[in-house]
Amino acid sequence: MKARMFKNTMIVAAVAVVLTVPAFWTVARADEVPAFSLAWSEYPSWSAFGVAHEFGFINGREGEMGPIEKKWGVDIVLKEADYDTCLVMYGSGKCDAVCITNMDALIPSLTRKSVGILPTSTSFGADACIVVGDITDIKQLRGKKVYGLAKTVSEYCFVRNVEILGEKESDYRFTNMDPAAAALAMQQKRDGFDAIVVWNPFVLETLNKRKDARVLFDSTSIPGEIIDMVVMTQESLDKPGGEKFAWAVIDAFYTINREMAKPETRDETLIALGEKFSNLNLDSMRKVVKQTRFYATPDEGVTVLGREATAGIMEKVVAFCVSHEIVPEAPAVGFGSREEAEEAAFRLDPTYIKGFVAKSK
Amino acid sequence: MIRQPISTRLAILLGILSVVALLMGYTLLSYVQHLDNPDDTTIPTWSQLGEGVQRLLEANPRTGERWLLLDAEATATRLFLGLFYGIVGAIILGLLMGCYAPVEALLVPPLSLLAKIPPTAALAVFFVLVGTDTEMYVAMIAFGVLPSLAQSVYLAVHDVPREMLYKAYTLGASQMELIWNIIVRAVYPRLIDSVRLQIGPAMVYLIAAEMVLGDVGFGYRIRLQMRLLNMNVVYPYLAILAVFGFGMDYCLRLLQRVTCPWFIRHGR
Predict the structure, then answer these.
(1) In angstroms, rounded to a whole number, what is the distance separating the alpha carbons of residues B100 and B106?
(2) Long-range CB pairs of A255-264, under 8 A, 24+ apart, other chains included
(3) Residues A298-330: pLDDT tens digits?
C-alpha cells in the first residue's frame, strides 16, 4: 500500500515538474527577449510578413526566432486572420501592431493612440469599378446598384471617382456586398450585377473570366490616397523593446522587397506572395504588384509618412470617414515623432524607418 | 440524491442568480478593460451600451432609417419564409418516408448525407445556384433544416405503435384517414420539439449568409459595426437575437402544452 502511494506521489511530482519547468523557462526567456505581435491578413504587401516567415528570415511562432529577430533582439509573433478580425484584434488590444489601410486605421485610433510606422504599398489600379454590357459612362450607373463592401476603401474609391468626374454621390446606389460574392455574381452574369467595385484579386479574376467586363475607373485616379501600412499602438511602442520590434518589422518588409528586386529570387517570391492570396498565375501576380505599388525602399517609406506628401490625403480620408459615419468624430492626425505630434490620435511617423536605416549601417 | 426535485421558488431564484452573475461578470470584464484603456469600445460600459441602443433605435440623421426596424424586417422575413418551406417540406418527406418503404429506401440515404453538410460551409453553392436575393436566404434555411427535420419526422412515424395502426385498419380507416388521424397526431408534438431544435441552426445559417451577402439585416449590421469597432451596437443586436430565439422556443413549448397536453402529461 505504502509502495503504491509512494509511486503515485512520484508520478504526480514528475508531472508537476514537467508542467512547471517550461513555464519558468518561458518566463525567464520572456525577460530576455520581449515579444510583440503583428496581426496580418492576406494581401500582396502584407503577405510579405508571411513570406518572411516561410523563407526563414523571421519566425512568426512565439518563442522561436529567425535571424532578423535575433539581430534586433525581439520576438515577432505573427497572427494571421481575415482583415476584419485583424481590425477587431487590434482595436481590443489583442495585438501590438496590425496591417491596415490608412482609412481603417482611423477607427481604432479613436480609442488607442496609433502610429503608422511603415507604409507597405498603395493601390494603383488594385481597386476598380468593373462594368459590363454597354456601360461606358459613369452617368449610366445612375439608379443602378453598384456592389462592393460598404464603408471600406471600395466605397472610398467609388465616391472619390464620382466626385472627380463631377457627379453627385446621392445619384448613385452603392450597395453592400462582400467583394468575393460581388465578383462571383458578375462572373456568373447574374441579373442586376452590371457594376461592382472590388479589389484584387477579384479585379483581375473578373476581367480574366468575363470577356465583356472592363474597368470604368480605378484607383489610379486617386494615386497615393489608399495606403496599406503597418500601424502600431503608442502603448506598445513605449514598452521596452517596442522600438526594436518596429525596426525588426521594417527590416523583414524591406528584406522581402530586396528578394523581389533580385532577378534570381523574384519569381519565387511573387509565387509565395500570391499563394494564398489568389489563384492567379505568375503573370497575373506580376500585374498585381504593379497595381499594388510597393513602397520598396526606406526612402519611399519616409516620404509617404511625411507631412508634405500625405497631409492633404489624410484630410480627404478623414472627411470621407466622418461624412460616411465610419468614425463618429474626426481623429486628430499628426506627422512626425511623438514629441512633434503629442496630441495626435493617429500619427504617421517616419522616425522608425530612419532609425532602422541608421542602425543598419 | 441525484435528480432530487427543488421547489419552484428556489429554481426561479437560482435562475435569476445565474443571470445576475452573468451581468456582474460582464461589468467586471468591462471595468478591467477600461482600466487598461479608458476609451475602449470593444467591451463597452453600460452607458456606452445605452448609447448603442439609442443609436439603433433612433432615425439615422443622414438616411432617416431606423436600423433596428429595417434589419428586423429583413431578417425576420428571411427566417420565417425559410423555416416555413423547410418545415413543410420536412413534414411531407418525413411522412412519406415513414409510411412507404420505397420512398424510405429512395430518400433516407441522400437525406442522411445532406444532413451532415453544414449549410454555412455550402454558402457559396447556394449563392451560385440561387443568387443573392431573398430566395437565397430562404433556400439556405429551408435546405439547412429540412434533412434533419425530415429524419426526425420519419423516426417519429416509425415510433407510432403498430397496435394503433392495426386498430384503425380494423375500424375501417382508409390510408389517408390513418395518416391524418393517427400518424400526424402522434408525430405532431415531436415535430414541435424538432422545430425548436432547428431554430438555433436556422439563425446561424441566416446570420452567416447576411454577413457575406446582405445589405440589410442583423448579420450585415453586426459585421459592419464590428469592423467599425462599434461593439455597443453589436452586443444589443446579439441580445435581441438571444431574446428572439428564447421567445420562439417558449412559444413553441406553449403551443405544445396547449395543443397536446397528453404528450406533456405522459411524456415529460
Answers:
(1) 10
(2) A255/A52, A255/A57, A255/A68, A256/A48, A256/A51, A256/A52, A256/A55, A256/A57, A257/A48, A257/A294, A257/A296, A257/A297, A259/A55, A260/A289, A260/A294, A260/A296, A261/A296
(3) 999 999 999 999 999 999 999 999 999 999 999
Cα(A149)–Cα(A169) distance, integer angstroms: 16
Q: What pTM was computed for the model?
A: 0.81
Each residue's pLDDT tens digit, B179-227: 999 999 999 999 999 999 999 999 999 999 999 888 899 999 999 898 8
B44-267 CATH, one of 1.10.1040.50, 3.40.50.300, 1.20.58.100, 1.10.3720.10: 1.10.3720.10
| pLDDT, tens digit (0-9, with 9 covering 90-100), for B33-47 | 898 888 888 899 999
Q: B131 at the A interface (CB within 8 A)?
A: yes
What is d(CA A98, CA A105) in angstroms, rounded to the nearest whole number? 9
CATH 3.40.190.10 fits A33-122+227-360, yes or no: yes
Residues of B in contact with A87 (CB under 8 A): 227, 229
**A325 interfaces chain B, CB cutoff of 8 Å:** yes
User: What is the ipTM score, two decimals?
Assistant: 0.74
**How far does the CA of residue A269 sit from the closest CA of chain B (Å)?**
31
Question: How close, in Å, is residue A139 to chain B by CA atoms?
Answer: 23
Q: How many angstroms separate the CA of residue B63 from the nearest CA in chain A? A: 11
A127-221 to CATH, choices 3.30.70.270, 3.20.20.70, 3.40.50.150, 3.40.190.10:
3.40.190.10
Q: Does B213 touch chain A (CB under 8 A)?
A: yes
Chain B residues with CB inside 8 Å of A150's CB? 215, 224
Cα distance from N-terminal residue to C-terminal residue, chain B: 20
Chains A and B: how many Cβ contacts under 8 Å? 69
